[in-house]
Amino acid sequence: MAPINANDIVEKNCLVTQKVLPEIGSDCNGNEKTGYSYETLVETANFLLSRISEKPNIGIICGSGMGSYWKEGSLAESITDGVRIPYEDIPNFPISTVEGHHGQLVFGHIEGVSVVAMQGRFHYYEGYPLWKCCLPVRVMKLLGVKILIATNAAGGLNPNYKIGDLMIVRDHINMMGFAGNNPLHGPNDERFGPRFPPMNKAYNYEFRKIAKEVAKELNIDHIVREGVYTCLGGPNFETVAELNMLKMVGVDAVGMSTVHEVITARHCDIKVFGLSLITNECITNYDQDAEANHEEVLDVGRMRQEMLRKYVSCLVKKFSQADPDAP
Ligand SMILES: O=P(O)(O)O[C@H]1O[C@H](CO)[C@@H](O)[C@H]1O
Ligand SMILES: Nc1nc2[nH]cnc2c(=O)[nH]1
């Protein structure tokens, strides 16, 4: 079989309108690094392509406790013919520092579909700038990924949500972006996408519809919701006042990830499905004694592991069969 090259994949998948790279690596003042160059990411993708025999169609980001660590019965463990590559072995890759985030890419198959799963993601609170948190998404693009399934653990702010519910992400509010912190900040490379990408169809309508149908088929529709996610910088959980403010602006679930990954994916024309596991109830009044904590987040992830594995496996199959040109 002829070796696969990341450059060839992107040239086939998108219009290459700009051959000469802008100077990515510094901002307009020439000091702050704002992204890896296209060539650097091609180097990373080519390293990975040299280790696998089939390029992935679907990328999966495993959220906290949702297969983000290697555990019997987890989503990542259900990947067959798995090739596992630790982040520290991958050129230019950051490393995972969060408990419950294993730190490896797993290539293989789910329901016969070629996938790559991130067991462990990168968060802003770990000290990584947003462009670095999203580096794997661009690498996925260079590997040939067309669909991203981004999962996360989140606090349920909508009073109707219960711990253990799943929320199909209908939309997000980019709170960090309001203050100008955006993964696309800095010079734009048209080979990934346009300077001003639209974001009104960030979460694919067809996939959301399929996800609701699959929930019915699996008899889990009573715990599957659909709502708006927001990401805060973390690492602290929110104050009561902050949560009440977020509630007022229409947020249903709160986390510390996903939004920037989705923006990066949509920028380079990867279709997106987002799924939150509601791991804790957001505390919105001062009388409540409970406090949010990461242990609870991981425990609920473990509790829902088997269901998530089944649900996401079915979604992988159905998404891969869906009309690739659906909006
Ligand atoms: O978004 P994921 O990585 O699933 O994890 C969520 O859970 C952790 C807090 O318990 C934070 O990292 C938050 O972002
Ligand atoms: N910001 C935030 N992230 C979370 N991840 C899991 N639960 C929560 C939460 O309540 N708030």
Looking at this protein, list some descriptive labels.
20% strand; binds 1-O-phosphono-alpha-D-ribofuranose; binds guanine; 327 residues; five-stranded mixed β-barrel; 10 helices; alpha/beta; Rossmann fold
Mind explaining what this structure looks like?
It is a single chain. The chain has ten helices and nine strands. With 327 residues, it is an alpha/beta fold. It has a single domain, classed as 3-Layer(aba) Sandwich (Rossmann fold), CATH 3.40.50.1580. Bound molecules: 1-O-phosphono-alpha-D-ribofuranose and guanine. Its EC number is 2.4.2.1.
The ligands found in this model are: 1-O-phosphono-alpha-D-ribofuranose, guanine
The CATH homologous superfamily is named: Nucleoside phosphorylase domain
- Tell how many strands the DSSP assignment holds: 9
Number of helices: 10
Rounded to an integer, what's the Rg over CA atoms?
Answer: 19 Å
Taken together, the total number of domains comes to: 1
CATH class: Alpha Beta
Instruction: Using the 3D structure, state the CATH architecture.
Output: 3-Layer(aba) Sandwich
Spatially, the strands of the biggest sheet line up as 5-8-7-6-9
Strand-residue fraction? 15-25%
Mean pLDDT comes to 89
Return the CATH topology.
Answer: Rossmann fold
Largest sheet: 5 strands, mixed, barrel
| Low-pLDDT segments, ≥5 res | 11-31
Could you state the order of secondary-structure elements as H and E? HHEEEEHHEEHHEHEHEHH
Helix content: 25-40%
Pathway: Purine metabolism; purine nucleoside salvage
Domain Nucleoside phosphorylase: 58-313
Pfam families: PNP_UDP_1
Keywords: Glycosyltransferase, Transferase
